[in-house]
Amino acid sequence: MPELPEVEVVRRGLERWVAGRTVASVEVLHPRAVRRHPAGGADFAARLAGRTIGVPRRRGKYLWLPLEGGDLSVLGHLGMSGQLLVQPAGAPDEKHLRIRVRFADDTGTELRFVDQRTFGGLSLHEIVGDSAEGLPDVIAHIARDPLDPLFEEGAYHLALRAKRTTVKRALLDQSLISGVGNIYADEALWRAKLHYERPTGTLTRPRSTELLTHVRDVMNAALAVGGTSFDSLYVNVNGESGYFDRSLDAYGREGEPCRRCGTPMRRRAWMNRSSYFCPRCQRPPRSAS
DNA sequence: CGTGGCCCCTGATTGC
DNA sequence: TGCAATCAGGGGCCAC
Description:
By secondary structure, this protein is α+β, with helices and mostly antiparallel strands. 24% of the residues lie in helices and 20% in strands. It has helices spanning 4-17, 41-48, 153-162, 167-172, 182-192, 205-224, and strands at 23-28, 57-59, 62-66, 72-77, 82-88, 97-103, 109-115, 121-126, 266-270, 273-277. The strands form three sheets. Strands 1-6-7-5 form a four-stranded antiparallel β-sheet. Strand 6 (97-103) and strand 7 (109-115) form a beta hairpin. The chain starts with a helix and ends in a 12-residue tail after the last strand. It binds a DNA duplex through residues 1-3, 6, 32, 35, 61, 77-81, 96, 115-120, 163-165, 169, 172, 174, 181-184, 228, 230-231, 233-234, 251, 271-274.
C-alpha cells in the first residue's frame, strides 16, 4: 500500500526493466483494473500493442509510462494493494493478476499488474501539445510532490494558511502536496510534534517549513531502504519487499512508548483510518477534543 | 465553492 | 471452530 517512496521504488524498477521495450500484446484479466480507461480493456490492449515504452515518470503516488512518439502515456496507480511485477513469462499467474503485458523481445520476462483490492489500475491517455514529460491531463490536479525540485514551498504555505482544515487532512490532500499518505503523514507529524487536528491556519511559516522538512526526511529515509512494507502485499517491481517499517516512529505503535518521551502512543479512529500520535509530544489544539 | 462523509473491493485478523 | 465485525497504507464522487 504504497505512498511516494514505494511508488518511486517501483518507478525505478520499471526504468531498469521495462523502459525501451516494445509491447507485443496485452491481456486484461479484470475490468476494474482498467476502469479509468473509458474505452475498456480491449481498446487498452489494442492501443498499447506494438508501442515502445519510454522512461517512467512519477508525480506523488501516480506513475506513468510515456510511449515513444509522445502521443500517449500509460497511467498507473497502485491504490491500496497494487503491484507491478516483472516476472519470467512462464511463472505461474498470481492469484490477483489483473493485467499482463508481453514484450516483443527475447528477454523472457513480462510485466504484470497484480492487485488484490482493485483500487488501483492502468489507463491510456492522449498527451496534448507541449507536455514534454507526457503528464496525462487527468492528473493535472495532482500537486507536485515534496521531492520534486519544482515544488513551491511558498505557495504551499500560503495554501495551508488559506485552508480551513486540519493539518493531517491537508497533508493527505493530493491537490496541495502529493505523495503523502497515512503512514508518512503520521511520521512527519510526530517528528514535527504536531497534533493531527491542528488547524492549518495557525501554522506559522517556520512551522510549515519544518513540517515539510520532516516530510522530506521521512520519505528519503524510506526511499533509502526501498520503501515501507508491512507484509507481502507491497512488493516492488522485482518482487522484493521494503523494510522501512522497522524504523517507523508513530504508525502502528499504539500502546508502545514514544521514542522521544516514553509516553504510550495512542491511536484514534479518524476518517475511516487511524492516526497514531504521542499524547505528550503532540498536544491537541485547544478547540479539539 | 470548499469541506467532509461515503464508497469502491478483497482478505486477514479479532472477538464473541 | 465458526461466523460476523473490524480494519487495511487511496482517492473519486457527491451532499451539504
